[in-house]
Design goal:
single chain, 2 domains, three-stranded antiparallel β-sheet, 1 helix
């Protein structure tokens, strides 16, 4: 009977080792429990109303991971250049062209306490914010900021678009 107890102990240790190795491989090496959110921003020019453009400022997210993610902060700012603006570098942004005029700072989530959205694996979400762009605008710059996860993890997205003629 001692040989059977020894075999059982060996098999138990082997099973625990294989299970632990699998968990280590899956969650530490492949980081499957970590966020894999693809985030982008865009603007959709809907049409003109008088001298202004009616636009949708878009926040687009896709969960390419294997676990759902709670997103607590989903902000944007919309800046523009207008006819006659000189293109000047801004050292604060690594020498990129400075887009000076702030049109709108906002959030795709409602401004209520404890509001969040959850994105499940394999799904996409599209948020829009309807706004106006002055008729003398030539280019728009959209910055997006997404907070997700429990540890203050963030990702950013930017897009520069030309205002149609």
């Amino acid at each position: 009977m001692d040989i059977l107890n020894l075999i059982e102990s060996i098999l138990t240790i082997l099973g625990i080792s294989v299970g632990g190795g699998w968990a280590f491989w899956k969650f530490v090496v492949h980081r499957e429990a970590h966020p894999r959110i693809e985030f982008s921003v865009d603007v959709n020019f809907v049409g003109k109303q008088g001298d202004e453009w009616l636009v949708e400022v878009l926040g687009l997210m896709e969960n390419k991971g294997n676990v759902p993610h709670k997103m607590t902060n989903l902000e944007f700012d919309l800046k523009y250049l207008k006819t006659g603006d000189k293109l000047a570098e801004n050292e604060k942004f690594g020498g990129q062209i400075d887009i000076k005029h702030v049109l709108k700072e906002g959030s795709w989530l409602p401004s209520v306490e404890d509001v969040y959205t959850r994105l499940y694996p394999g799904l996409s979400i599209r948020y829009n914010f309807i706004y106006k762009v002055p008729g003398d605008a030539t280019f728009l710059l959209i910055h997006g900021l997404l907070d997700y996860g429990n540890k203050g993890e963030q990702t950013r997205a930017d897009r520069l678009v030309k205002v149609p003629n």
